[in-house]
Specification:
The protein is mostly beta strands. It folds into three domains: 183 residues, Sandwich (Immunoglobulin-like), CATH 2.60.40; 105 residues; 47 residues, no CATH class. 11% of the residues lie in helices and 41% in strands. It is built from four helices and 25 strands. The strands form four sheets. Strands 1, 2, 4, 6, 8, 9, 11, 12, 13 and 15 form a ten-stranded mixed beta sheet that branches. A five-stranded mixed beta sheet has the order 7-10-5-3-14. β18 and β19 form a beta hairpin. The longest helix is centred in the C-terminal third of the chain and has 13 residues. The chain is elongated, with a radius of gyration of 27 Å. The protein starts with a strand and ends in a 7-residue tail after the last helix.
């Protein structure tokens, strides 16, 4: 494989003959792997897919010219496109082609200025692609905030979307654009942080927003409550509740208001409280104590919480439903069709169809 510059690529395709698609219309579209990223930012992978029914001598596809246009709706998301050939064409139908190009053709090739034009191309000097469904390219974009990404085709310097066969016939496939909202990963359960007095709390989330006794810039619906005596010791405690917290590290500052001792616990619905501190002595009120708690994603279908949805999760559900095994924790992880009640046979069948038959993913 050799990297090909866009001008040379266009020249190679310039003298081809326009023709009809050899069979039924071929098509190209975009799918997204992960429409959410961690609160501190992460990579979104959009896969350009295609279908062809080409077969027979001279009908294999040996050339692709795919100019696309990518837009971003939120400047604060600070998107950065990875336009390296290695990333773009890894594990694709054209990874073994002779010449490949992945070039940003706007703003002097700056892959961080959106909207941008992006020319993708592949040429094989040997055998090409025949009938089937394939991935053509991986469009990897680093995102730092919520946004909407759109990918559409365009014409770049007379180069339009096209497929080329080994008999040098050139034709235009059907194209379906994609616009996808990109969110930040959140745990679907409430995060409770409780300080057993005499202390106040400041909780800082992965986006560096925070909540304290007299301020709140954190997620909507979050509360700071000082009216409860959670452990029934006769003193009011400080309770911070954050609905659907972001996935990532939370920093917790414990600020003494008096001498004595304090304890600090966290809980996510469906789990027991975990103590981060127990009966810590407060010698003076000038010391601030710091703790960290990591919120992990809880994804329906990932019942064993290993960040994958596969056969292991199906076995876990079978053991729970039919053999009295441990319940998913929280139990909603196994309720993959979002029905009411505990996981049952319907959820197992749903997961089997998803894992082995490519059916609809678990609900969110």
């Amino acid at each position: 494989m050799k990297k090909l510059y866009p001008v040379i690529f266009i020249l190679l395709l310039a003298c081809l003959t326009w023709a009809q698609d050899p069979g039924n219309p071929d098509s190209m579209w975009v799918e997204i792997d992960n429409p959410t990223v961690p609160a501190e930012g992460g990579d979104v992978i959009l896969r350009i897919k295609f279908y062809t029914d080409n077969s027979g001598v001279g009908n294999d596809i040996t050339g692709f010219g795919i100019p696309i246009y990518i837009t971003n709706s939120n400047l604060s998301a600070s998107p950065i496109l990875d336009n390296t050939v290695a990333t773009t064409f890894s594990n694709t139908a054209v990874s073994g082609f002779t010449f490949l190009t992945a070039s940003v053709t706007t703003n002097d090739g700056d892959s961080s200025i959106f909207p941008l034009q992006y020319l993708l191309g592949a040429i094989a000097l040997g055998a090409g692609v025949t009938s089937g469904n394939y991935t053509f390219a991986n469009v990897k974009i680093h995102i730092s905030d919520t946004t909407t990404l759109c990918i559409d085709s365009l014409t770049y310097q007379a180069q339009s979307l096209n497929f080329v066969t080994s008999s040098t016939a050139e034709y235009i496939p059907n194209w379906n654009q994609l616009c996808s909202p990109i969110g930040l990963q959140q745990n679907p359960n409430e995060l409770d942080i409780t300080a057993y007095s005499p202390v106040n709390l400041v909780v800082i989330d992965p986006k560096q927003d925070s909540i304290g006794i007299d301020f709140n810039t954190i997620l909507e619906g979050s509360t700071y409550d000082t009216t409860q005596d959670v452990n029934s010791d006769g003193e009011k405690d400080d309770v911070v509740k954050i609905p659907k917290p972001y996935v990532g590290d939370y920093q917790i500052k414990v600020i003494p208001q008096d001498t004595g001792h304090f304890s600090l616990g966290i809980r996510i619905d469906g789990n027991d409280q975990v103590l981060l501190a127990s009966n810590v002595v407060i010698a003076d009120t000038d010391t601030t104590f710091g703790y960290q708690a990591e919120v992990l994603p809880s994804v329906r279908g990932d019942v064993n919480k290993d960040n994958k949805k596969n056969l292991t999760d199906i076995i876990y559900l079978v053991n729970y439903v039919f053999k009295g095994g441990p319940a998913p924790d929280p139990v909603d992880l196994g309720n993959v069709n979002c029905s009411s009640g505990a996981p049952n046979l319907t959820d197992i069948i749903y997961m089997v169809n998803y894992v082995f038959k490519g059916a609809k993913a678990p609900c969110s």
